[in-house]
Write a structure and sequence with these properties.
Structural class: alpha/beta
Shape: globular
Largest sheet: 7 strands, parallel
Helix content: 25-40%
Strand content: 15-25%
Number of helices: 10
Distance between the termini: 40 Å
Strand order of the largest sheet: 3-2-1-4-5-6-11
Length: about 325
């Protein structure tokens, strides 16, 4: 049994990750600021499923609060930190950029400083497929350079990877960064496409279809994401003995640092995604075709060779099954 600190515990991925750790017998301290970026009642609903477990302790706190975070680390002394809290959303970063610096930069610094001063064995943190930015070579590989982000959100996630590498180098903190690809499923975020589409279709409202529907996304079911996170928890990164300063590999290092993609390795066109959702709902969507939005990219596609090689795991939930699970949950939760 490990003592694990999970930030963003009331969030989509955080909630499911906490459940997986508790099921495996670990003691979990969950942290969340319960902000109103989206419906707080959904976050409370998730927490209500976690709090009955005696191995779980919840703390309401903002990771950007430097003094409180230092005190928390000193009190809890976690062995492993799974950092999933962040200001999410590419499009919202165009509207409220300061929220991304507060949470994703200042907050991340407070997390990694806590790891530094409290002998944390392993920091696992959420990055994002958005770091690939203007890259077009598919599938996206962790061994590709990612120096051309097209949104502030992506830039903050790239900054997290750089900050983690620096601390791995300076202080020997083992750091694992996870680039998630378009996560969906039950208890998902209301600002994401599947949730927005489902709500609009059931209410007979049109859905916004960006890039005229010519988008491709490597949709990844939440259980597959969480299984990847769980397996990598005990895969503590070590320095790569073959790393070369004259030909540096972005995914590894001379320090205990590693980056992984967790994606379905199977991009799906947005119109196909909508078609599957229509069949599950038994209703046809009214589509409002729109151009590509600033900050968005036309396609994502994850190379997961390193994930397979290191922990023997490949996400395999089909888009049909995953959307079906979400629709079932949505109808039950919202009494539709």
């Amino acid at each position: 049994m490990k003592k694990i600190l999970v930030t963003g515990a009331a969030g989509f991925i955080g909630f499911h990750s906490v459940r997986r750790y508790l099921k495996a017998g670990h003691a979990v301290v969950g942290l969340d600021n319960m902000n109103d970026y989206y419906d707080v009642n959904l976050k409370k609903g998730r927490l209500a499923l976690l709090t009955p477990d005696p191995k779980f302790r919840f703390i309401k706190m903002d990771i950007a609060d430097r003094e409180s975070m230092a005190a928390l680390f000193a009190d809890v002394k976690p062995e492993i930190v799974v950092h999933l809290a962040a200001q999410a959303g590419v499009r919202y970063s165009l509207i409220n950029p300061h929220a991304y610096v507060d949470s994703n930069i200042t907050g991340f610094l407070n997390i990694i400083e806590g790891c530094r001063h409290n002998r944390v064995e392993h920091l696992i943190f959420a990055s994002s497929s958005s770091v690939y930015g203007a890259n077009t070579l598919m599938p996206f590989s962790v061994h590709h350079n990612v120096d051309h982000p097209v949104s502030l959100y992506a830039a903050t996630k790239k900054a997290n990877e750089l900050m983690a590498h620096t601390y791995a180098c300076l202080y020997g903190i083992p750091c694992t960064g996870l680039r998630f690809f378009t996560v969906y499923g039950p208890w998902g975020r209301p600002d994401m496409a599947l949730f927005l589409f489902t709500k609009a279709i059931l209410e007979n409202r049109p859905i916004d279809v960006y890039n005229e529907g010519k988008m491709q996304r490597d949709f990844t079911y939440i259980d597959d994401i969480v299984e990847g996170v769980f397996r990598l928890t005990e895969k503590i990164p070590e320095p790569n003995p073959d790393w070369r300063a004259d030909l540096p590999d972005p995914a590894t290092s001379f320090a205990p640092y590693k980056i992984y993609n967790i994606g379905n390795n199977n991009p799906v066109e947005l119109l196909e995604f909508i078609n599957i959702l229509e069949k599950e709902l038994g209703k046809t969507a009214k589509k409002q075709m729109l151009p590509l939005q600033p900050g968005d990219v036309p396609a994502t596609y994850a190379d997961i060779d390193d994930l397979m090689a290191d922990v023997g795991f490949r996400p395999d939930t089909s888009i049909k099954d995953g959307v079906g699970h979400f629709v079932k949950w949505y109808r039950e939760y919202y009494n539709e």
